[in-house]
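Saturday, quiet lab. Running sequence design on the structure tokens for the scaffold JK sent over.
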């Protein structure tokens, strides 16, 4: 099992590489040569990782009538829950010897991704279309921990209250559909996302399990 420092170092390295890939992809999407083949959009999203809704942005680049590449980002609302933890007295003469302390956990999920879409009903410019998609991405999940009031001079908590950041590479598959409404294309997508537990042939631990996600948004082609 990796130590916390090793895990955070690995996560930071992967996140920097992911940001670099997304930046290159977005610069390419916005280049003059791609102007007539790109779309930008916004979306509402849901993830089963935190069981919360979020918002996101993305850009599309069509390499043909039926093949499109995308890069995007989603930010999800904070999920919080409270659990009781025990605090143990430092001295055997302290009464009571143990007390219950409420501990609140707050998690805010961020998702970075690049995907490819292949239309099998209609195409990129038709009034209605259906497509399959595959994606690679990175989940970042910062978690803050806050303990309730207790006498820390007399008691020590039996749980770690240090804030941590979890994350991992992932890959996913899904299906989506679009409908032209004259002001742009309304789309909806459903995806199943798996954690990548090997990197360069080496097995790594992962913190975020298999999940599913939904997106509903609007895609607006340039020059529409």
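Result came back. Writing it out in full:
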């Amino acid at each position: 099992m990796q130590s916390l420092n090793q895990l955070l170092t690995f996560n930071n390295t992967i996140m920097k590489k992911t940001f670099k890939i997304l930046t290159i992809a977005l610069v390419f999407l916005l280049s003059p040569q791609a102007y007539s083949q790109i779309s930008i959009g916004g979306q509402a999203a849901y993830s089963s990782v935190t069981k919360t809704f979020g918002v996101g942005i993305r850009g599309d680049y069509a390499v043909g009538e039926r093949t499109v590449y995308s890069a995007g980002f989603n930010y999800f609302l904070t999920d919080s829950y409270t659990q009781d933890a025990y605090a143990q007295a430092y001295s055997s003469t302290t009464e009571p010897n143990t007390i219950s302390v409420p501990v609140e956990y707050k998690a805010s999920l961020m998702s970075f991704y690049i995907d490819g879409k292949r239309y099998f009903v209609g195409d990129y410019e038709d009034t209605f279309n259906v497509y399959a998609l595959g994606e690679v991405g990175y989940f970042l999940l910062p978690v803050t921990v806050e303990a309730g009031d207790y006498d820390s001079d007399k008691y020590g908590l039996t749980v770690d209250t240090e804030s941590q950041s979890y994350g991992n590479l992932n890959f996913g598959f899904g299906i989506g559909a679009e409908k032209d409404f004259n002001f742009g294309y309304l789309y909806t997508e459903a995806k199943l996302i798996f954690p990548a537990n090997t990197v360069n042939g080496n097995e790594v631990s992962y913190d975020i399990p298999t999940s599913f996600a939904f997106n509903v948004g609007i895609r607006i082609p340039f020059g529409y």
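Notes for JK: The two ends are 52 Å apart (CA to CA). DSSP finds one helix and 13 strands in the chain. Ask whether to fix the surface positions before the next round.
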